Amino acid sequence: MQHPSDTLHARKRRKARAMIVSSAFQLFSEHGFDNVTVAAIAERAEVGRTTFFRYFGDKQQVLFADECDEVDRMCAYVRDKAGRPLGSDLGAALALLREAETVTKPYAVLSPAHSAVLARLLRESVDLRSRYLLTRQQRALRLAGALVEAGAVEKVAVLAAHTAMACELTAMRLAESPEAHPAHVEEAHGLLRSLGG
Question: Is Transcription regulation included in the keywords of this UniProt record (predicted)?
Fold first, then answer.
C-alpha cells in the first residue's frame, strides 16, 4: 500500500526535481559552474525554465539541493529522541546532534559522483565556498532551534550546534570533500572530548 502523500503528482515532482539536479551536476562536471546557465540545465533536464524555478531559486541552490531535507530529518530526530530536557548539558546536546547526523546520513541523496563534482567546484570558486558556508550556518541555527525545543538552554544549544558544525567542517577539510567522512567527524569529536580529560 502506498503512502497517502505519494500521489502521482508528488512522484512526478520528485522525478522532475531529481532530473534537474542530475542534469545540473552533469553540466557542471562537463563545463564548470560559471559556464552553465539555468536555461541549459532546464534543457538537459527536459523541463521549462518555469519548472526549474519552481524548485530552485538559482543554479547555486541546485548544488546544495539536499541540505534542507537532511536538516529537516536531523531536527526531527533531535526533537523526537531527546529523552529528557537537555538543560545546560553541552555534552548531551553535542552527543544528540552527533547521533542525529549518524542516523540521518544514510538518507542523504548526494551521490559519490555528485559529491566529487561539488568538491571540485568548491575548490575552484570563492563565491560557491561562501554560499556553502552560509548553508552550514543556516543549518547550525536550525539545529540550535531543535535543541532548544528539546529543552536545551539557548546558549548551550547555539554552542552545541556551532561546535558540531566546526567538527563537520574540520572533517570535510581532512577529507578534502564536501562529504565529511565519518572517521574524520569522529576524530574531530574525539579531540573535543579530550579537552575534558
Answer: yes
